[in-house]
């Protein structure tokens, strides 16, 4: 059963990619420019909301030098920028650029489209049990991150038209 569940999750991720390609025709080109690890960094920056280099290192459990190296790669591709911290002039905060925010927005929208597709096709009583199970699991391991996602999602909804092609 565990292996089957893993295969089902993998297939869901594949379906999300299909939805992304359908709804955002140029997203495949954007994804092809990034590694999975680079996408992880973008999500960390998105989740942490203008983090310092050391915030990202702590969040991702990597060395500060790894964050610096990844910052330069993502900066060259136009996904991130930095600014000096107002609190501590010795620190810099990393921000997603419009291009970075747009990619995260599209990826998030594909997840929501997949959820809508599942909710339209599955019996409601079974969905509620699956929803509660996922919610409980994720809140147990990533409660702060989940709260940030909801905050960011509401911000995206306010400026949604800016990210649509």
UniProtKB/TrEMBL annotation:
It comes from the Archaea. GO terms for molecular function: DNA binding. The keyword Transferase does not apply. InterPro entries: HTH_MarR-typ, WH-like_DNA-bd_sf, WH_DNA-bd_sf. The keyword Transcription regulation applies. Keywords: DNA-binding, Transcription, Transcription regulation. Residues 1-143 form the HTH marR-type domain. Pfam families: MarR. PROSITE patterns: HTH_MARR_2. PANTHER family: TRANSCRIPTIONAL REGULATOR, MARR, TRANSCRIPTIONAL REPRESSOR OF EMRAB OPERON. This is DNA-binding MarR family transcriptional regulator. It comes from Methanococcus voltae PS. The lineage of its organism: Archaea, Methanobacteriati, Methanobacteriota, Methanomada group, Methanococci.
């Amino acid at each position: 059963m565990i292996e089957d569940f893993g295969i089902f999750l993998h297939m869901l991720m594949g379906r999300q990619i299909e939805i992304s390609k359908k709804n955002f025709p140029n997203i495949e080109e954007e994804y092809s420019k990034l590694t999975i690890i680079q996408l992880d960094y973008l999500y960390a920056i998105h989740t942490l909301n203008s983090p310092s280099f050391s915030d990202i290192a702590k969040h991702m459990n990597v060395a500060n030098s790894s964050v610096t190296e990844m910052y330069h790669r993502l900066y060259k591709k136009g996904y991130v920028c930095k600014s000096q911290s107002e609190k501590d002039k010795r620190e810099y905060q990393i921000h997603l650029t419009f291009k970075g925010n747009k990619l995260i927005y599209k990826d998030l929208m594909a997840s929501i489209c997949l959820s809508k597709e599942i909710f339209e096709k599955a019996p409601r009583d079974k969905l509620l049990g699956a929803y509660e199970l996922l919610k409980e699991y994720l809140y147990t391991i990533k409660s702060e991150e989940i709260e940030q996602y909801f905050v960011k999602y509401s911000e995206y909804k306010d400026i949604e038209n800016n990210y649509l092609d």
